[in-house]
Amino acid sequence: MDRTHKAEMVEWIGGVFDKNTVLVVGNGGLSVSDFEALRGDLRDAGASMRVVKNRLAKIAITGKPSEKIAHLFDGPTALAFSEDPVAAAKAVHKYAKTNEKLTILGGVMGDEILDQAAVKVLASMPSREELLASIVATITSPASGIAGAIGAPAANIAGILSTLEEREAA
User: pTM for this one?
Assistant: First the structure.
């Protein structure tokens, strides 16, 4: 890897840390097929993963709040990241349950440093889409209740009128 490529990589890693929730995972012992399966799960969740050189990652986070996790870049590591704060955490945590070779070392969410326990808590939270769906349901439920209440008297009156018509016809 030449100097230009290294500089581009450092800039890219810094951008990933600036714009995303980033998890550092230990991927020692994962086979290529395991790694591709994990990448597929992350892609489905709206997240990504990339193996990076530890030295370049440490250079990229120097002087940033995420510099506190520089000690995690030791041995075979990869970055799992997503703009949605919980997408990467959910996918990695789910995969780590089935494959003990993948370890979650920690991560960064904005200026907040995450340890293994914090990543587990983050993975248990609802995703952005789930939160939006629950907000929409909360907003629309009173409106559907009002529509039902408004329509109910008309239905009651129609039922009474049909009953009266049946009595008169009989």
Answer: 0.72
